[in-house]
C-alpha cells in the first residue's frame, strides 16, 4: 500500500529467506512462526542477517489456543461455552485446523524455559 522506493516486497516461504550477514537492525515476525515446522534453521538465518546489536521481535499464537487442532470451546448441551479444552497441550507437533475458511497446518509448541 505504499510506493516508497526504499521498500522491497518479497513473497516466499519464511524458511526460504536468504539475506546477507548483518543486513538488518531488526527482524519482525507477526503470527507466523507457528506455521514453521523446523524453527532452528529459521532462527539461524534470522540471527545471520541481524547486526550484532540487532533485535528479533516476534509473536505467535498462544499455545493454549493451538493445544487442540479444533481450536474451539467445549460447549454444553444448551450451546453454552463451558471451558477451553487443553487436551494434548503437552504433545507438541503438527495440528491441522481451519483458519479463515482454509485448511492450514500449524505446529503446537508449549511454553518452556530455554
Automatic annotation (TrEMBL):
One Pfam family this sequence matches: Methyltransf_11
Entry keyword annotation includes Acetylation: no
Chain ranges of the Methyltransferase type domain: 6-58
Single Gene Ontology MF annotation: S-adenosylmethionine-dependent methyltransferase activity
Keywords, alphabetical: Methyltransferase, Transferase
SUPFAM superfamilies (UniProt xref): S-adenosyl-L-methionine-dependent methyltransferases
Stated name of the protein: Methyltransferase domain-containing protein
Organism, as annotated: Paenibacillus algorifonticola
InterPro entries: Methyltransf_11, SAM-dependent_MTases_sf
GO biological process, one term: methylation
Highest taxon in the source lineage: Bacteria
